[in-house]
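Why do we bother with a discrete structure alphabet at all? Because it lets us treat a fold like text: something you can write down, compare, and reason about line by line. To make this less abstract, here is a complete entry for Ferredoxin-type protein NapF. Read it the way you would read a sentence in a foreign language you are learning: slowly, and without expecting to understand everything at once.
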Amino acid sequence: MNALSRRALLRARPENPAPRLPWLADDALNRCTRCGDCINACEEAILINGDGGFPAIDFNLGGCTACGACADSCAQSVFDRALPLWPQHVNIGEQCLARNGVYCQSCRDGCGPAAIAFAPARPMPQPMIDANACTRCGMCIALCPADAINWSLPA
């Protein structure tokens, strides 16, 4: 994951729509003390020390099961479980192997909610994401050999 500015890290600004932490409250940047409790509590070990010591999520390490351990461990109320897990949408970019004529369906194979399907097409089946079924868990990001899956903010 690229180094993120503090603001982009926690707010997923449009110029760098990196995945933000789950259930992140709007004023999280002001309340986060960088104690590392959420990082230590993460059962999937996908939370890391990011820019300036702020917690960041690295989906290259795996996907999020939405267990809530990060939120439960935070004494500063940085997380608000009444909020959606993530506001971003997942997109498959043009560097996708299937879109470039190489058979690959790694993202679909790792997608627990079956939000990724491959439509029959010639010469190669093409990936499609069902935005309603996608939980934004990030497992597809971890499994993509071409680094073709990214985030975008809703319009």
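What the structure line is telling us, in plain words: The radius of gyration is 16 Å. The longest helix spans residues 6-11.
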